[in-house]
Amino acid sequence: MPCLGKKLKRAFQNKLWVSTTKLIISTKSAGMLIAELTGENPNTAEAIVSKLPIEGRANIWGEEIYFAIPVEAEEETSKQVVEVGDVAYWPPGRALCLFFGPTPVSRGGEIRAASPVNVFARIIEKHKLLRLINAGEMIRIEYA
Description:
single chain, 144 residues, mainly beta, Cyclophilin, 10-stranded antiparallel β-sheet, 10 strands, globular, disordered N terminus
């Protein structure tokens, strides 16, 4: 993790979190979005951040975008009902998920993942731009 800097590396080792750590999510259609690590599921966040940059092709399921990533992580403090803008890891599919509205299994006004996910970041603005992303489009996640 040399690119993360000593402060973030120490935070991972101590299971603490640096709340200002940010990721860049970029696509051709939506441009650049900024996500902030939340401190939830630190083992998942560490596993993902240590592999950055990560690229994948978008799959769309309702108002969720997901794509396979080269990370293997177990469930931590997983949940199935998430919030708009949540960035999560889906352990069964080894995939990164970007939530911007209801999915086919949502009930009422909730946003529900197919099964429990490890939320580790949140898009801090412009999450509505995720609607512009097309199936098959390349998405890149990198450390800001």
